[in-house]
Design brief:
Elements lengths: L1 E7 L12 E8 L18 E5 L5 H8 L16 H12 L5 E7 L5 E12 L5 E8 L8 H16 L5 E7 L3 H9 L3 E12 L2 E11 L7
Parallel strand pairs: 6-7
Antiparallel strand pairs: 1-2, 3-4, 4-5, 5-6, 7-9, 8-9
Helix pairs in contact: 1-2
Length: about 220
């Protein structure tokens, strides 16, 4: 089953920091977490988060240039490395909480990013909006759920005044809703005719995780 969540980044090819707002997130979860190989680290256990660097641009192109990975986003897939580098420099690096999703190798050291997760405070500062995207090669392996768990474990200590992180997901996408629920998010309501994605008016489900909610192992 396909999980559809997407980060709304405005209509421009190189969206500005003000537009980094969650509407949907696209991940694919065709299966549950892949079983660990004997003697290897489980894929979900290997997930780490770190700030982005300019050197990450080529790894970022793996998902930002993929039409399937960006199919439900409000911006088109990148075709220019320079345009993506400008977005990384001008929007990602100054962002208050925009992290690279990385997988540790067998030696425990993190590798190149395989995705991104952002938490963007809103104007009232007590709320923040979640966005996440993952390269297709890592769909269906528990990576997104692990990244969400690590996000809520860290973000309330990192962003002063934020008490609530919220995510909005397409109403028809049960798999993405399960991913959020597995990470401890609470389903709150259906938002009817909430947004337009690729020319289609969509109903959304809103989820939240507040600072006093228990973390999920």
């Amino acid at each position: 089953m396909e999980t559809i969540l997407t980060i709304h980044l405005g209509s421009n090819l190189t969206p500005s920091i003000e537009h980094v707002t969650l509407l949907l997130i696209q991940i694919k979860m065709d299966q549950e977490e892949a079983p660990a190989q004997p003697g290897s680290m489980r894929r979900a256990d290997a997930v780490t988060l770190r700030p982005f660097e300019l050197a990450d641009v080529d790894a970022m192109m793996a998902w930002a240039s993929d039409p399937e990975a960006t199919a439900f986003m409000t911006w088109c897939a990148y075709t220019s490395r320079d345009a993506l580098l400008a977005f990384l420099r001008d929007a990602v690096l100054p962002h208050p909480w925009f992290r690279a999703v990385c997988l540790a190798g067998g030696d425990g050291e993190p590798r190149c990013p395989v995705g991104a997760v952002s938490v963007t405070p809103t104007a009232d500062r007590c709320r923040a909006e979640l966005g996440i995207v993952l390269a297709r090669a890592h769909w269906g392996k528990g990576v997104a759920t692990a990244a969400l768990k690590r996000t809520v474990a860290a973000v309330f200590g990192d962003l002063e005044g934020v008490e609530r992180v919220e995510a909005v997901v397409d109403v028809d996408n049960a798999a993405s809703q399960r991913a959020l629920e597995k990470a401890g998010f609470q389903r709150e309501a259906v938002l009817r005719s909430y947004c337009v994605v690729k020319g289609r008016l969509r109903d959304m489900v809103i989820y939240s995780f507040i600072s006093t909610d228990p973390l999920v192992d």
